[in-house]
Fold this sequence. Notes:
Strand order of the largest sheet of chain B: 1-2-4-5-3
Shape of chain A: globular
Strand content of chain B: 5-15%
Keywords (chain B): Membrane, Transmembrane, Transmembrane helix
Largest sheet of chain A: 2 strands, antiparallel
Oligomer: heterodimer
Order of helices and strands of chain A: HHHHHHHHHHHEEHHHH
Structural class of chain A: mainly alpha
Mean pLDDT of chain B: 82
Number of strands of chain A: 2
Pfam families (chain B): GerA
Radius of gyration of chain A: 21 Å
Family (chain B): Belongs to the GerABKA family.
Shape of chain B: elongated
Protein name (chain B): Spore germination protein GreKA
Low-confidence stretches of chain A: none
GO cellular component, one term (chain B): membrane
Helix content of chain A: over 70%
Amino acid sequence: MIEKGKISAAQMGMMMYPTIIATAILLVPAITARHAKQDMWLSPLWASLIGFLTVYITVRLHELYPEKTIIEYSEDILGKFLGKVIGLIFLFYYLYANGIIIREYGEFVVGNFLFYTPLVVVMGSMVLACSFAVRNGVEVIGRLAQMIVPIVIILIVINIILLIPDMEVANMFPIMEKGIMPSLKGSIIPQGWFSEFLLIAFLLPYVADRNKGKRWGMISVAAVMLTLSLVNIAVLFVLGGITDRFTYPAFSAVRYISIADFLEHIEAIVMALWVAGIFMKVAVFYYALVLGTAQWMNLEDYRPIIFPMGFLILLFAVWSAPSLMELTHYLGSTSPFYRISIQVGIPLLLLFVAKWRKRANNQKLTQQG
Amino acid sequence: MFFFKQSKKKKQMAKNQKKQNQNQIQSQNQQQQAFLSTDLDQNLQELQNIYKNCMDVVFRQFQIGGKTKAALIYIDGLANIEEIDAGVLTPLMKENHAKENTDQFIHVNDILEQKLTVSKVKRVQTTTECIEQISGGNPVLLIDQQSEGFALGLSNPEKRSIEEPGGESVVRGPREGFTESLGTNLSLLRRKIRSPQLKAKSIKIGEYTQTEVVISYIEGIAEQTLIQEVEARLNRIKLDGILETSYIEELIEDNPYSPFPQILNTERPDVVAASLLEGRVAILQDGTPFVLVVPVSFYSLLQSSEDYYERSLISTATRWLRYAFLLVSLLLPSLYVAILTFHQEMLPTTLLVTIAASREQIPFPALVEALLMEIVFEALREAGLRLPRQAGAAVSIVGALVIGQAAIQAGLASAPLIMVVALTGIASFTIPRYTAGIALRMLRFPMIFLAGTLGLLGIMLGLLMIVTHMATLRSFGVPYLSPMAPMQGREIKDVLMRAPWWKFNTRPRLTGDHKNIQRQGPNQKPGPDYGDDKTSKDQGGS
């Protein structure tokens, strides 16, 4: 095996939490609000179903091929050629997704805090920092998650508590004015984020306590769902009907924090701590990409391709969209279908084929016996 | 081309010479392995050859009972001369052998049992052993017609008395510290842990210094794999000499290029004893009061022994104070730079106005200003350590002027920055372990640079890199950030708080299979006993 490190199931769960949250609290509330209006807090609940489904599919596949990642077992399931094609699709997808994450992060930082810093410098420094973590393998990323996740959770909770004076509960009503449809529509975009739980297909082979993998995957999905709902509620209470006019509603809400004329304008600190979350997200995606590529090309070690891949990610981040407007439009329109079809559709197909082949094999065996 | 060839030749010659030297050393070793002969003169000749040009080695030749030739060899100053006179020379020389025993030869055992009034005697058979004992300070007694000598345990090297260690003082707790003498240090440990399970294995390190190094652990608590690993790493050391345990530390560390210490060094016997009781291994060395303890985690470097002597709530508060100031010592100057350069809106308006007013006269950007003053502070600290004591007062006066009013009046630094520098300095000294504190102090310089170029984002990226680096470190197999990452639920109570003693029921998990984990009896939480408490007031009154 290329990766020799081992993580615990709890570490895997903790790695996935910021991996979903970090960018989901950035752009998603606005996009959700556009469709769901005051029911936006319900949308993560519906969207999380996709998350649970993804974890379920991945765990079932993992049970069939416990030592392998999705890049390896897709070859076992579909044969050498088709498997390689599927692997290539995944790798390309992760390269592209990674570029988009970096771009989202860069646009956000440059647009709100470092107005005069070139976008490439902001994005490049993050890729560099992440490559440093990826170099040290899954064990270190797992440990980093355990250091960072408590900080991210505390950050979210403290911000919500500090926003209580500005909250207006009436913004929530009427609940489900136009039935369940708006919130369902609003859930399509977050579904794309929840489908990212496919990443555990790259982590499960290195989990030491295997039987707990499913449990921690589900816990992680539930935690993400709760957090997104909570953030959406808080944003809705503070901003009300105009939520969809902001690009980054959660951060715009943070600007409202003002306690005793002293504790105000803390958005820079919030950004700095949020960067820790983004760091985790990029590190996990980056790791999956590098590990998958090494396995796809049958390399003995993934370390030599880390820096070239990092450079490629940076390029993809630059190429992925001409402007923030285009990026938001893409994320709000076509991206969920693209993401769900790759991250849920293909694994589902793999699972069906694997099951079918196994049954066929069994029948053959019984016929022979 | 020609030149190259020549240099190659030279290299080869040097290689050959090296080989010859090695051969010589080997042959010397073989010679010294030789057993003592029965001829005293020959033995003496051999030892005198080895100790040629060593004027501090004394060869005292005398006759036992006026008959048998004998010689006492010792190093002047290392051996206790008074005891040699009283316990060896007097009884042996005054012995009137002829009267009692007509036998020509004296029996070695007779001398040992009847004449030598010395408690510690060891028989030596080879020249090597002789040299070892003599150099260690023990006089060696050689007797004619005997193929073995006696090493007498009369060494008495100069010693310092036991004092309170300067680097790790406490308000409450034992005030004794290790000294330069290995024997004293081991006795200090043994006085704390009396169980025979406390082991002390000795090895010699250093081709020329022949320094005695002792691995100490408690059998049954320390994992066997850990002890073996420590021994293996120590045995790998091949140096001319070691003068301080830091030599060993550098040679057995997991990651020598890290700024963070991965081995604890301490002068306090109580710290070592507590570590041994947790299943760690101590490495003591003759000639230095600093004892190494392995393995350690980052958090144990942030703990003072006094945490365990104070009340648990107070210690918990102290620990959190320390964590906060750890961040201050690492981040405060860079936060100052980042906020003044990129995020002015974070400051309340009044404060911002004050700072802006005081910075009006300063010709430098915040980055340069902060770097300058931090470097000056580090220089003053270093000078304060190295200067002779008489000049210390001068440094502190000049220092107060340099980092203080004069700097502000000269328009080189602003008053808020002076505050920041002073606070950072104080904060770095709240970390109980000097080596850990200095690592963080040095890391704040790259952080200032990052803050000056990327603001808070740069600080965060720098912090993430530092944490990533720390997550990769291991100290003898134990992850550096444990028990936080990887998380170990049972031990967090010694990091996020200092739990009361009755909560520490298990030993920390270090390496190996962690079998013998029960540390103390359960349910030791004290509380009023309403049952048959004879001392309670109610019953006393009746």
